[in-house]
């Protein structure tokens, strides 16, 4: 699995692309200069790294996503569960709830997800 961990600045950069895609790479450079105070080489270096991770592509001067924001977040969550909890979602939930607890509304929402998964599978 590709490492989908992003630092805070990389995540902000990714958010800019998701918010404005598709966009010409030159427009991305200007956007990053205005929003992140980056120079052109920095923008292209970070873009190249995120393209290598399979999140975006820069083809014919147009930057687009290969993973939507929702798909990226889901893949990142799966990566966390796999790496930290041996792929066990129940172990992750147990660790999360031991520290943070669950509200009744959260428990009901999780139960609805479980019920939906049972109906589909």
Characterization of this structure:
The protein has 121 residues and is mainly α. Helices cover 69% and strands 8% of the residues. It contains six helices and three strands; from the N terminus they run H-E-H-H-E-E-H-H-H. Strands 1-3-2 form a three-stranded antiparallel beta sheet. Helix 1 packs across helix 2. It is elongated and about 45 Å long. The relative contact order is 0.11.
* Assembly level: single chain
- Strand fraction band? 5-15%
**Helix content estimate:** 55-70%
Stretches with pLDDT under 50, minimum 5 residues:
none
Q: Note the gap between the termini.
A: 25 Å
Report the biggest beta sheet as strand number plus sense, adding barrel if it closes: 3 strands, antiparallel
Q: What's the alpha carbon Rg, rounded to whole Å?
A: 18 Å
Order of helices and strands: HEHHEEHHH
Mean pLDDT: 93
The count of helical stretches stands at: 6
The side-by-side strand order for the widest beta sheet comes to: 1-3-2
Number of strands: 3
Q: Give the overall shape, derived from the CA principal axes.
A: elongated
Structural class: mainly alpha
Layout of secondary structure:
Elements: H1 8-20, E1 23-24, H2 25-36, H3 40-52, E2 56-59, E3 62-65, H4 69-85, H5 89-100, H6 104-120
Antiparallel strand pairs: 1-3, 2-3
């Amino acid at each position: 699995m590709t490492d989908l961990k992003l630092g805070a600045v990389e995540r902000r950069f990714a958010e800019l692309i998701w918010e404005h895609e598709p966009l010409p790479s030159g427009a991305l450079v200007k956007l990053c200069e205005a929003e992140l105070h980056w120079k052109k080489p920095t923008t292209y270096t970070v873009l190249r790294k995120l393209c290598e991770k399979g999140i975006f592509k820069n083809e014919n001067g147009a930057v687009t996503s290969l993973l939507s924001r929702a798909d990226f977040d889901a893949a990142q969550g799966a990566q966390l569960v796999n790496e930290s909890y041996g792929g066990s979602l129940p172990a992750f939930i147990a660790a999360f709830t031991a520290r943070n607890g669950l509200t009744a509304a959260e428990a009901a929402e999780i139960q609805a997800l479980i019920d939906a998964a049972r109906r589909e599978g």
